[in-house]
What does this fold into?
Amino acid sequence: MEHTTETQYQHPENDTQYKGLQVNSGVTSQPIVNPYRRTARRRQLSVADYVEGILKGNVSILGQAVTLIESTAEAHQAIAQEVIEKCLPYSGNSRRIGITGVPGAGKSTSIDVFGLHVLRQGGKLAVLAIDPSSERTQGSILGDKTRMEKLSQERDAFIRPSPSAGSLGGVARKTRETIVLCEAAGYDNIFVETVGVGQSETAVHSMVDFFLLIQLAGTGDELQGIKRGIMEMADGIVINKADGDNIDRANLAAGQFRNALHLFPPTPSKWRPEVLTYSGYYELGIDKVWDMIDRYFAYVKETGYFERKRNEQAKYWMIETIDEQLRAHFYQRPEVKALLEQKEMRVLNNEQSSFTAAKDVLDFYFERLRSDR
It folds into this structure.
């Protein structure tokens, strides 16, 4: 068998034994992207650009500024903190509402209908999230965002998932800073959703004015699946899915929660938390829930508790930030890491107590700080 051309090697059909058959080699594959088209590089925004865009309510620039806050790069953090400082005088004019509940309670559906209620009244809404499980699940709140179908289509709604990884403290601090930017951008209602039930409730409670707990009925012992500490933090408890055959069970659960609340000490605001029933799916009783929230804000502003709580929260986040920075500075020093490993081995081998080992590491750290001056 004779092969006379390169094309024959590429296409066996061109062999001389196949009379009258010729297959062309074709053309070279072309690149998908036009090589003659120049891609325009995005202009690097200055601090003034960010602040101006945020104050004008530019959602794109607001989103970019929040991304800076979430970044761990020092250069990004420096810009972000300067933007926050300049936006601070324009913040504080919103109602910050924390929303939590057991898994499956319908938080996303509830936020969807609560948010639409806010927008119908002429307000603007930002929905933020604190997701302590994000380091393990890579951001489960993204799934919640897809369930806010109606709200995500509204131009006056800004929905921001939590960072895809990070400690609870870090995620919470970034959410607190994002609130400042959202308020400066004109969002007069801020929903802070907590994805899990546990430590994140404390973080949310420390940055909101009203804390709403969503519960379900017909799941057995209604008081079993919720911690007392979370109920004590709640300014209002709502029983979701009060529709159809579940209405009686929802009313029964509401009665149980009301009885339980009588056993708790008075709240710092002296406000008596209310327990209501509603249906997020069928949008029943939404007005009653929002009327309760309106009554709460009227009450705490009249008594002066609103300002006192905001001031306490500002001091709390200052101390939290100091603690976070000190921990980072301590644990990131290579010499401290090396000494920690040595001390851990001594503690595990019962050669030294945990307390004296800790004192040795701290003494070493402070001595290094003095020598660095």
